[in-house]
């Protein structure tokens, strides 16, 4: 897994729809960007949060993803495509009582 001359690749494939049905083998992140918007010209970056229900990119901004995953930790329709975060604690990644301090950083 990592970045190659051809872009970001996950060598063991993806675990979310619609790519998990493709079986094992490399999953190139540009495939998600192309599915979300075939005319996409943005930079392809990680992390990327994918909505399996709408098959759209929710965000590719790590700060925004951290806040989203904290706010929506109990929701099942948000999915981190490479499962990098694993199980999120019930208090989330962005504790409400620390919001002001964190935002000042």
Q: Main sheet: which strands, in order across?
A: 1-2-3
* Terminal residue distance: 31 Å
Give the fraction of residues assigned to helices: 10-25%
Largest sheet: 3 strands, antiparallel
What overall geometry do the principal axes of the alpha carbons give?
A: elongated
Question: What do the pLDDT scores average to?
Answer: 75
Give the number of helices: 3
* DSSP E strands, number: 6
Give the strand content.
15-25%
Structural class: alpha+beta
Write structural notes for this entry.
It is a single chain. By secondary structure, the protein is α+β, with helices and mostly antiparallel strands. The protein has three helices and six strands. It has helices at residues 30-36, 62-71, 99-104; strands at 2-4, 7-10, 27-28, 49-51, 56-59, 78-80. The strands form two sheets. Strands 1-2-3 form a three-stranded antiparallel β-sheet. It has a three-stranded antiparallel β-sheet with strand order 5-4-6. The termini are far apart. The model is unreliable at 76-84 (pLDDT under 50).
Architecture blueprint of SSEs:
Blueprint: E1 2-4, E2 7-10, E3 27-28, H1 30-36, E4 49-51, E5 56-59, H2 62-71, E6 78-80, H3 99-104
Antiparallel strand pairs: 1-2, 2-3, 4-5, 4-6
In short:
With 105 residues, this protein is of the alpha+beta class.
